[in-house]
Amino acid sequence: MSEIFDVIVIGSGPAGYPAAIRAGQNKLKVACIDEWKNTDGSFAFGGTCLNAGCIPSKALLESSELFQRAKDEFGIHGIKLGGITLDLGAMQKRRASVVKTMTNGILALFKANGVVGIQGHGRLLPGNQVLVTAPDGSENMLQARNVILASGSTPIRLKSVPHDGKAIIDSWDALELDAVPGRLGVIGAGVIGLELGSVWRRLGSTVTMLEALEQFLPMVDQTIAKEAQRHLKKQGLDIKLGAKVLSAAATSGGVDVVYADAQGEHTLQVDKLVVAVGRRPFTEGLLAEGTGVELDARGFVQVDEHCRTTVPNVWAIGDVVRGPMLAHKGKEEGVMVADLIAGQFGEVNYKVIPSVIYTTPEIAWVGQTEEQVKASGRAYKVGAFPFAASGRARAMEAGAGMAKIVSAKDDDEVLGVHVIGPMAGELIAEAVLAMEYSASTEDIQRTIHAHPTLSEAIHEAALAVDKKMIDGINR
Ligand code: FAD
Ligand code: NAD
Predict the structure, then answer these.
(1) Which CATH class for the 3-155+280-348 domain?
(2) Angle at 172 between CA 17 and CA 203, to 5 degrees
(3) CB-ligand 1 contact for 150 (6 Å cutoff)
(4) Exposed end of the chain (fewer CB within 10 Å): N or C?
(5) Is 328 touching ligand 1 by the criterion CB < 6 Å?
């Protein structure tokens, strides 16, 4: 007789592990299975986010920004340093140790919440059975009252740009480079391209980005996107829009990339080429014949708004289902499903999911862009406040960017908040909370913000919506 669990979670990324923890908190008997293997051969929980995504990329973004600031900014503060040199080995060691601390943390959380962590491959069989194949090849059949699929996503590969993990690489490879490439090419000027392009540019690479679309960051409010493009260009990121990559081939000296734009065909020679053209849902080996779990046309597991699949008591969350591929979106889905299974209330407000791009300046937003509100036909008001007028931002030598609020003309409801500037990713939390409570701009206007803080920019942007800005000129 196979062991029976209330809940089996397949995948321990930021969608799966919170689902398992909440199930444990809800006193359910829960197991979480993961097959993740790191490049050093070690197994780890935490998925893409902890091992090869959010956490290592932010560790390198932090280190590389400090390096850049030490070289270019400390002098402005009156701090004179001798020759500043890069020890990439030490930087990468720190990145790896941050990751290890976080993934070990999941083990501790599993233990504290009674979650059985299982290393191996999980495959759903009909009748809510899960076949686990351990790393040594041995098999074990588990039975579950509920199964949560949280198998995540994987990079999209381009046929014309064959990945070899050496010269033509993906985001995971690009996080673990042991030398700074002299010339780095990046295909795709999306979130990954911009973050990793920034890391290696700061550390000394000449970075050329080839983006197929004519528009830069189409999902971002275009006032903010234009500001971002200007700053990133000034920093030295060469972002070529409307560039269609035709082929790439590894050579003895690096990679030859052929692309076409409005001017015709070009060849670009780089030492490393990162392909960052999006990610696709990962379901390989996940579903046996006859489970009844359906995938949509793009390969995502089909779910309703409560993450129920087409099969009773089988749920799916995170990158493997529709919606933005963001760790915090997956986490909330995991918590929702674990609460629903326990018979409690659970809901995700898909309209209020923040996004952050960790460039300098940082870009963060929640809700609708001005373009989306305009297209919806709803009458709206806009207010913006430049960080150049923020005392705290000036003191930080970080006066680039702005905070912008779009709200409804009729009832003053905040419809979207868009920030480019210092700590934008932290500042957006106030906007998320405001929108979660359907706040008006007047609510933000009447909320006291400490001085001098960056958060005053959100306050002033709210005041600007009604031309009541104090620290800026109302137009
Ligand atoms: P994943 O994290 O992909 O985890 C899925 C897990 O399931 C994996 O561990 C995999 O081994 C396991 N698995 C799959 N199939 C099976 C199976 N059959 N049996 C056993 N185990 C299985 N998002 C943010 O919100 N903020 C960021 O700053 C951010 N930065 C990123 C930077 C990079 C470079 C990348 C690549 C992504 C980044 N993301 C970021 C996106 C974020 O990583 C994903 O949205 C998130 O990891 C999705 O979580 P998940 O749990 O759905 O899937
Ligand atoms: P993305 O969708 O953000 O960007 C991919 C870019 O590649 C797009 O601009 C697209 O137009 C372009 N592109 C597609 N095909 C192309 C081609 N053949 N030639 C040139 N350009 C092409 O995807 P990503 O940057 O790979 O990131 C994947 C996912 O990971 C995203 O959904 C993102 O949400 C998530 N992520 C989030 C963060 C964060 O929250 N800070 C960081 C990294 C990744």
Answers:
(1) alpha beta
(2) 125
(3) yes
(4) N
(5) yes
Does the beta carbon of 279 sit less than 6 angstroms from any atom of ligand 2?
Answer: yes
Q: Give the number of other Cβ atoms within 10 Å of residue 170's Cβ.
A: 20
CATH fold for the domain made of 352-465: Enolase-like; domain 1 (3.30.390)
| For the CA of 211, the nearest ligand | 2
- Structure confidence by residue, pLDDT tens digits, 372-421: 999 999 999 999 999 999 999 999 999 999 999 999 999 999 999 999 99
Which ligand number lies closest to the CA of residue 57? 1
The fold of 168-277 is: FAD/NAD(P)-binding domain (3.50.50)
Cα 218 to middle of ligand 2, angstroms: 11
- For residue 44, report the distance from its CA to the centre of ligand 1, in Å: 12
CA atoms of 262 and 59, how far apart (whole Å):
38
* 52 Cα: distance to centroid of ligand 1 (angstroms): 8
Q: Is the CB of 197 under 6 A from ligand 1?
A: no
Cα 320 to chain centroid distance, Å, stands at 14
**Cβ–Cβ < 8 Å for 163, 169:** yes
77 catalytic residue (yes or no): no
Dump pLDDT digits (tens) for 123-148: 999 999 999 999 999 999 999 999 99
What are the residue boundaries of the structural domains of the chain, listed by start?
3-155+280-348, 168-277, 352-465
d(CA 453, CA 443): 19
| Two domains, one topology: 3-155+280-348 and 168-277 | yes
Mean pLDDT of the chain: 97
The structure's pTM equals: 0.98
Q: Note the pLDDT tens digit of each residue in 37-56.
A: 999 999 999 999 999 999 99
